[in-house]
Amino acid sequence: MILVTGARGTVGRELTALLQARGQPFRALARNPEKAKSATLPGGVWRQGDFVAPDTLRAAFDGIECLFLLCGAQPDMDILEINAVEAAKQAGVGRIVKISVPNASETGIAALQRLHGRSEAALGASGIAWTVLRPNGFMQNLYGPTQGFDARRICRLPLGEAKYCFIDAQDIAATALVALTEDGHAGKVYDLTGPEALSYAEAARIVSKATGETFTFVDIPPRECRADLLAAGIDAWFVDEILEWFALFRHGRVGGVSDAVETVSGRAPRALSDFAQGNLANFGAPGRHG
Ligand SMILES: NC(=O)c1ccc[n+]([C@@H]2O[C@H](COP(=O)([O-])OP(=O)(O)OC[C@H]3O[C@@H](n4cnc5c(N)ncnc54)[C@H](OP(=O)(O)O)[C@@H]3O)[C@@H](O)[C@H]2O)c1
């Protein structure tokens, strides 16, 4: 049996949809399963569990053979994921597929690189067969609150000509599905990217063409971005973390295009133009194609 953690999140939702479409039995973890009940997943699928409370994980992991490990970005994410790895060990879980970040390392520059690095190290020492997936920036960020185009279709970030290899969360999920259900991926670290390296200005042009609306990127200094994000109510720790990542991308310290999505999953990763056409409403451009 597979357990998907982070099942209500951006990647987890895609993974549970793929598992469901394939008819593969699975369970989905949520801190509050009442909130998690949705029309798309049957109620019996959900298990209650919180990485903060190892006792809840003991029950949630009972009978689980394969674990998809994902925790939302937060300052103690390493401790939370290590709790999950420990509970998995006690429950006899045989395989873990973990979501991480590019260049995760205990000595990484950005906090999330270090947090994921510590969690990866615990996973490596656990004796459980593991696969680590390190995605580039999600395409879904482009309509999100911290790194996306706003209601005026403007995106103001300190990114200059920095290149992102944006990836659709569905491609991350498709790769995770294979690593969870097929052999040959134990002990592997996969950098996951979309098919092209794009600056935000190039991404704006692609989204404009796909939606028929004008999307604009404006390069701003980091301090202005910090003020914008804090004013928008984004948690100060996360603001600092996002700014660290912007600096990494600006200085070309995040890798380029990888072929791992296609090599592992057998499907070519989705291009941004196709993603934008498939997400018109999310980009606030529902008019063009109805
Ligand atoms: N966004 C990017 O561009 C990007 C790029 C590379 C890597 N990543 C990594 O991807 C991950 C985020 O993925 P996402 O965007 O799919 O997540 P998300 O949409 O932010 O959702 C976070 C999930 O984490 C779960 N969670 C948080 N705290 C928990 C706890 N204490 N116990 C159990 N579950 C908990 C939440 O569960 P509930 O349903 O209970 O709330 C939720 O399902 C992070 O590890 C991040 O570093 C992101």
Could you characterize the architecture of this molecule?
Helix 4 (77-91) links the parallel strand 4 (66-69) and strand 5. The protein has two domains: 2-135, Rossmann fold (3-Layer(aba) Sandwich), CATH 3.40.50; 137-167 and 194-255 and 268-290, UDP-galactose 4-epimerase, domain 1. It is 40% helix and 15% strand. Strands 3-2-1-4-5-6-9 form a seven-stranded parallel β-sheet, with helices on both faces. It is of the alpha/beta class. The longest helix has 15 residues, at 77-91. The site of NADP nicotinamide-adenine-dinucleotide phosphate has 25 residues, from helix 1.
Structural key phrases:
two-stranded parallel sheet, single chain, alpha/beta, UDP-galactose 4-epimerase, domain 1, 2 domains, 11 strands, binds NADP nicotinamide-adenine-dinucleotide phosphate, 290 residues, 40% helix, 11 helices, Rossmann fold, seven-stranded parallel β-sheet
Write the layout of secondary structure elements.
Layout: E1 2-4, H1 10-22, E2 26-30, H2 33-36, E3 46-48, H3 54-60, E4 66-69, H4 77-91, E5 95-99, H5 111-125, E6 129-135, E7 154-157, E8 163-164, H6 169-181, E9 188-192, E10 198-199, H7 200-211, E11 216-219, H8 222-231, H9 236-250, H10 260-265, H11 272-278
Parallel strand pairs: 1-2, 1-4, 2-3, 4-5, 5-6, 6-9, 7-11
Antiparallel strand pairs: 8-10
Helix pairs in contact: 1-6, 4-5, 7-11, 8-9
The chain binds NADP nicotinamide-adenine-dinucleotide phosphate.
